[in-house]
Amino acid sequence: MLSSNVHRMHLPREVIVGDRSLELIYEVCENLGFNRKVLIITGKITNRIAAQKVGKMLYNEGLKVDCHIVSSHIPTLNDVLEAEEAIEKFKPQVVFGIGGGTKIDVAKLSSAHKCVPFISVPTSASHDGMASPFASIKGLEKPSSIKAHSPIAVIADTSVIINVPYRFIASGCGDVISKFVSTLDWKLAHEKKNEYYAKYAASLALMSAQHIVENVNFFKPCSEEGVRVLLEALVSCGVAMGIAGTSKPCSGSEHLFSHALDLFSPNIALHGEQCGLGSIMMAKLHGIEWEMIRDALKKVGAPVTARDIGIPAELIVKALLKASTILPERYTILNEKCLTRKTAYDLAKSTGVID
Ligand SMILES: [Zn+2]
To answer: What is the pLDDT of residues 51-93, one digit of tens each?
Structure first.
């Protein structure tokens, strides 16, 4: 019998990032032995942007292709169940998730439930779910992500992703920059609560954040190099979670703050934007150089104040106070500092998040 110390890592076998990488899709399928039947899970818009093209390429190579369109903007358990039905009916060898985060999450979770491998084809780069084994689905008891499985391949075409509004790219940077904080929270949980901690996975997540900071000058609208740097960082974050088997290397107190904002005011801003703002404040709580985080966010064009994204100051304070109760089992700096209304307000004010 295997020892309970055995650590299993589920990682992508192929990661392709680059200009017109979608054209390699058949080759990837062939290499992985998927030569008969594929199901594409996508959204209405992403179907037009990329999925139709992928379907046509595979069909022309002789594969049977079916397409399942997810119509909800925010994925729910019902969307996952419908996708599972489509998988059961069509019995594909592999499921493609083609779209922004939400469609990929539906494909990831439904394929995991049906034990069918999954290929991730992101059409946007606004957060780190594209290569991770975790999916965010709304309507569950907790706003945290649930474990699904890692994609067997990730194909990210920079010529597709470069066309999304720049705000999404900046948001993706915010999600990656937040790893300066999440890795510290994870380490803290290890030191204080003896939680499992994998230094290698934490280093990889941290390196992704450093990768953005070191290449900050590439981030501007229509910069292919910027998109490439961001995709590399996002894939590394996903791999860090795959190695760790938990989202902890990439999700700490700054993500709890973002989840709290979602609870009070869903869709007020993008996930990475909220995590970026949270990172500035949580970095100060950790006693690290929060100005470096704020400046990096500013340079990539991500919001650094509540005003930048139209969040009322009162909501920032409310979310700071709520954050530590969102996932009580996740130990972070918020458990150490126990914010009060006054200290939460002072924290937001002293970091310039509110004025
Ligand atoms: Zn995130």
So the answer is: 999 999 999 999 999 999 998 887 888 999 999 999 999 999 9
What pLDDT is recorded for position 8?
78
CA of 295 to the centre of ligand 1 (A): 19
User: Distance between CA 230 and CA 213 in Å, rounded?
Assistant: 11
CB atoms within 10 A of CB 17: 20
- pLDDT of amino acid 136: 87
CA of 224 to the centre of ligand 1 (A): 22
What whole-number distance in Å separates Cα of residue 301 and Cα of residue 331? 31
Distance 251 CA to ligand 1 centre (A): 6
* C-alpha of residue 34 to centroid of ligand 1, in Å: 31
Taken as a whole, the chain contains a residue count of 355
Q: Could you say which residues of the chain have pLDDT below 50? A: none
> What's the pLDDT score for residue 5?
72
Dihedral over alpha carbons 119, 122, 125, 126 (to 10 degrees): -90
Separation between Cα atoms, residue 136 and residue 84, nearest integer Å: 16
Compute the distance from residue 169 Cα to the ligand 1 centre, in Å: 13
pLDDT at 131: 95
Place of tokens 């419908």: 82
Ligand 1 centroid, distance to 260 Cα (angstroms) = 13
Task: Tell me what pLDDT residue 207 has.
Answer: 98
CA of 132 to the centre of ligand 1 (A): 11
